[in-house]
Fold each of these.
Amino acid sequence: MIESQSKESIVRQRYAAGAKKRGEKLCCPVDYGSEYLKVIPREVIERDYGCGDPSRYLRDGETVLDLGSGTGKICFIAAQIVGPNGKVIGVDMTNEMLEVARRNAPVVAERIGYANVEFRKGRIQDLALDLEKLDHELKKKPITDAASFLRADELAEELRVKHPLIATDSIDVVVSSCVLNLVEPRSKPQLFDEIFRVLKKGGRAVISDIVSDEVVPEELQNDPELWSGCISGALTEEGFLVAFEKAGFYGIQILKRDVRPWRMVEGIEFRSVTIEAFKGKQGECFERNQAVIYRGPFKEVLDDDNHRMERGKRYAVCDKTYNLYKKAPYRARFEFVDPLVEVPLDQAKPFDCLRTALRHPKETKGQNYDATTEADNRCCDGGSCC
Ligand SMILES: C[S@@+](CC[C@H](N)C(=O)[O-])C[C@H]1O[C@@H](n2cnc3c(N)ncnc32)[C@H](O)[C@@H]1O
């Protein structure tokens, strides 16, 4: 039986050793874009403990946070994709991993011609607490008794507020490869809340991790070797997506799912998935007479705000939903119907978001609209439509 705290210590020990010497059996092999690997030093590439490549979903100019960055491989790939106008921050709790990553950052910077990567020490379930700042303060005021322990607790809280390791609403994309499963069960809800907190509105998480096809029984969860080897802490395929939903994300989808399990333990399949989840469905809803039509192919869909829509029907939506659907991951699935007369945002009334209602074309055009026109030749390539 291992206690929660010792799970984290076991993980730290295992990856401290893995930073010094390539550890076998730590997560599964991944194909990275070979063009990005050329500038990354061998010791970084050799210590690859990832299970997927979220970096391939990044774009130029983005600010990226890599959770559990290890020796920095995903960060160094991301640095090249986001370019000199982008920024990459790696967070890890293991000193030995940070040491390898930080030592190699200037080497990569010199080879690509710019420095846009930094590595910070923290626990990914507590992204506000800068562990190096806390170390520094505790050296000045060591914990020697209960009173100083309580003072240290207050100090940590003050650091979270005044000097957060990762500020709220500051990141475009949170990525991670094979780390979330290593966080102890009681901290997992806080971990997903933290990912949500640090993302900007409109930002997204792209996470590769190991998931299981069945719930992992307690005796496997208490096996230290399996825990630190990315097995026992795996959420189920369904539970992984639900965790993002519970934290307030929307538009959650599986980008990649390995058909072949990476490992099987006592009949349970463990495989790598990469998922994407968006932040930004929260906010006020205003009525601007807009409508959307779900294009299909499914007969009906239900979004993360419980809007249920049948294919081909014209639904009234609020301005917020309308604009969310105009962006990824929904854009290609909808047609957008603007009212004939625009309702300015500052004159718009509150919209009842809980109601899903059809919007009659007369509402879009206005009750008295009665135009009659000649056929529009632009839609017929010069021939006849009918
Ligand atoms: C399986 S390795 C993956 C490393 C890296 N993402 C890669 O692709 O090679 C897990 C990494 O996450 C770090 N880690 C595990 N749990 C963590 C936590 N709660 N907070 C911060 N780092 C953590 C470990 O120190 C280790 O570097």
Note: Residues 59 and 332 are 19 Å apart (CA to CA).
Amino acid sequence: MQEQEVDKFYGRRKGRPLRKQKTECLKGLAQYQIQLPLDLSTIFPKSQEIWLEIGFGGGEHLAALAEKNPKIGFIGAEAFINGVASFLHYRAEKNLTNVRLFPDDVRLLLQQLPDNSIRKIFILFPDPWPKKKHHKRRIVNPKVVHELGRVLKKGGEIRLASDVPNYIEHMKHVFQLVPEFQLHFSDNEKPHDWPATRYEMKAIEAKQRPHYLIYQK
Ligand SMILES: C[S@@+](CC[C@H](N)C(=O)[O-])C[C@H]1O[C@@H](n2cnc3c(N)ncnc32)[C@H](O)[C@@H]1O
């Protein structure tokens, strides 16, 4: 298959040098890493339900969900290597065996995921790119949301959150462009089964009010 061109990635790949413990965790990445070209059948049994978290950051939410749902197969996509190392630390601590990682730009993975293959998708507190001229860098954009509409199973859901009111409006606008999706939930209080993320906790400490959305296909 010819690899399609993917738009440029604008985020960070590396941050502060990792502490020894996290460097050690990163040595185990190859074992959990999803390689391209993608063959989902070699990663999860055909009957297993798959959930995908895009931009999992430090991995708190991914680790909490994977621990609570041991029968689900999880894919975590995160381009920032320090975040990947942080998740691998939780993975080892909680002995999670049901998560595979894509440590790169998620758009490369999305274009190879089969139609109707994912049951739930999470995009939580994505990079806000606040300047208007940078809005096109937002991960929630028509091209990506169209792709999410393709890979999500019928009846599946996408959970989104942000503490930037203008990004919530942007998300609603973009999702309206894809007819497969219906807005199911929009509130400042999230459902009880929704674990916290690091950015969410920071936002709440800074007295920002996050907003939560659920779309269904
Ligand atoms: C603002 S952080 C939020 C992290 C986490 N979801 C949270 O709420 O704490 C956004 C994350 O998305 C990741 N990210 C942005 N674009 C991405 C892409 N195209 N593919 C994979 N990860 C991406 C960034 O590296 C960053 O860690």
Note: The first strand starts at residue 50 and ends at 54.
